[in-house]
Amino acid sequence: MKSLREVIQDARTKEIAIGHFNISNLEALHGIVNAARKVGVPVIIGVSEGERDFIGVQESVALVKTLREKYDYPIYLNADHTYSFERVKEAVDAGFDAVIFDGAKLTLEENETLAMQCVEYAKQAGRDVIVEAELGYIGQSSKLLDAVPEGVTLENLTTKEQAKEYVDKTHVDLFAPAVGNVHGMLTNAPEPKLNIERVREIYNEIKIPLVLHGASGNTKEDIQGTIKAGVTIVHINTEIRKAFRDAIFNYMMANPHEVAPYRILQAGQDAVEKVVEEKLRMFSFID
Asked: Labelling 172: which of 53, 213, 252, 258 has CA 20 to 30 A away?
C-alpha cells in the first residue's frame, strides 16, 4: 500500500484532491470509508483535539488501522488542528500518519518556532509522518454560523510572500493558507467566494501541496478551481456533522418508539456516506 506522502504526490500530479473528513464516532468512520471504497479513492480521517479527547487517541489509531487492514485499503489518519507541541508529540507517538500544527492565533514567530519543533520531532518517529501547518486565520468552530467569524477578512488572506517565508523556515510538508475559506457553515448566507488566484500564486511560489480547510458549503466551482490551482487535500467536517444530525432527528421523528441505537444511528451513517461520496467525486472530477 502506498504511503500517505505517495498518495498526496499522485493526487498533485493528476490535479485532483484527497478528501479529509472528521469523525467523532464509529458511524461517521464507517460512512466515510464506505463512500471512499465505493468511489475507489484514498481517504483521510481527521480527528481534532476535541474529537481525540472524545474518541481517544490510541482508540482513533486502532479504529483506522483495523479498517485499513480489514479492507486492505488506503485509509489514513490525521491529527487535525493541534495547538501545542505536546499534543503533536502525543499523536506522532500514537501512530498517526499526519499531524497539523495550528498556530494561526499565535504570533508569527511563535507559530514558526513551534512548527519547526513539530517537523523535527516527526523526523525522529522512525516512520514517515506528514506535518502540516497553516498561516492566516479562518475561524475555529466546525458548526453552523450566523456570520463570518470576527478576524476572517479579505485583508487577512495569506500572501505568497508570507507563505514562502513560512515554508522556507519551517520545512513543513503541507501548507494551509487563508484564501477566503471559513471553518463552519453559514446558515443564512452563501459561503464567501474562494480566492482561486491567491491559491495559484501561493502554490507557484512554494511548490508544496496546499490544503483547503473549512470547505463545507463552498461551491463545486470554487473547490474544483482551488484544486486545479494547487490544493491537494480538502477538509469537510461541518457539512457531514449537519447531515448526521439531521438524518437522526428525522428518523426519530418518524419512528418515535424506536430505541435501538444501531437502527437510529444507521440513518446518520447513511447520510454521512451520501455526502462524502458526493464530495469525493467532486474532488476527483468524477461525474
From this structure: 53
Q: Give the whole-angstrom CA distance, residue 141 versus residue 163.
A: 24
pLDDT at 183 over 70: no
Per-residue cell: 222: 470554487
Work out the mean pLDDT of the chain and round it to a whole number: 91
Averaged pLDDT, 40-61: 98
Domain boundaries, given as residue ranges, for the chain: 4-283
Task: List, in sequence order, the alpha helices (H) in the chain.
Answer: 4-14, 26-39, 49-55, 57-71, 85-94, 108-123, 160-170, 196-206, 220-229, 238-254, 261-283
Residue 188: what pLDDT? Answer: 53
The catalytic residue positions are 80
| CATH number among 3.20.20.70, 3.30.70.20, 1.20.120.530, 3.30.499.10, domain 4-283 | 3.20.20.70
pLDDT band at 273 (very low <50, low <70, confident <90, very high): very high
